[in-house]
Protein: MarR family transcriptional regulator
Organism: Cohnella fermenti
Amino acid sequence: MLLDDSIGFLINRTGRRVSQLFALRLSPTGVTTEQWSVLARLCEEDGISQKDLAHRVGKDQTNVTRILDQLERKELIVRRVNPEDRRSYLPSVTDSGRRAYEEIAPIEENVIRLISEGIPPEQLAALKELLSRIADNASSHLNDDRPE
């Protein structure tokens, strides 16, 4: 199979290009694309555990902890001890974090509009469905012990 026929290669290349464009547009805000994904998820589901947050943004817990450290230094989030498990923390968005979210959300919407130019809404919906199915299929095979 040619590399340009590989779904994995095409998804990866597309993701890198979209991330590069979004990072370029985000740079004046001082928030990175990684920080944005965590901040945006927390704005949607404030106060979830760091473990759940890591799962919901598709990053490992160590990486999420590093990102939360950065967001906390920027005073966009705070972490409080989880009253149900004193070994874990519950990150919450600050007022400054909500203002940053409100500033950045239109930037992301603009990037999505730019990369979606000329693509009918029904094709975008189908693409989202297919990407979700591909991700689910990959996830279901991550723990397979058999090399292929």
Q: What stands out?
A: The two ends are 15 Å apart (CA to CA). The chain has one domain: 20-137.
